[in-house]
Amino acid sequence: MRILLAVDESENSHRAARYVGSLLRRTPDVSLTLFHVLKPMPRGLLEHGGSEDPATEAQLGGRLRDEQQAWIRKERESECQVLKGVCETLGQSGFDTSRVSKQFGHEDDIARNILEEAHSGQYETIVVGRYGTSLAKRLFGGGVTDQLLRDAKGFAIWVVE
What we know:
Blueprint: E1 2-7, H1 11-24, E2 31-37, H2 54-92, E3 100-105, H3 110-120, E4 125-129, H4 135-140, H5 144-151, E5 156-160
Helix pairs in contact: 1-2, 3-5
């Protein structure tokens, strides 16, 4: 069984990790992936100014890709503590952390990024802690969890509150 646990730096993520770890610690055929979506890429790294000259355009495009990859590496390093902390929480709950892998996403739309990872990684289950949302978002379905519940077809969704 493949489970995707979407996490952030919140206590809700640690609560979800404790729940999953406690529930599945004696289930050896479960593999768990911790998935954290990085903050959005700065606008300056989304596109370059462009050029009429094809050689200059290629050079600008190459430099932009290098800068994007450097930004992603830097963000992964700085956000790695989020995944380490949740992994420690899993271990404290009795879950064998050798069955845990870690992945990052880096798009503006967190829910869409989680769903893309779930599809590409062929997970059966997505677990999320209830993300902190305002009353208005909860009432009108604008939160990450609500979007996952609405759009995740073919997955079991566990929402840990």
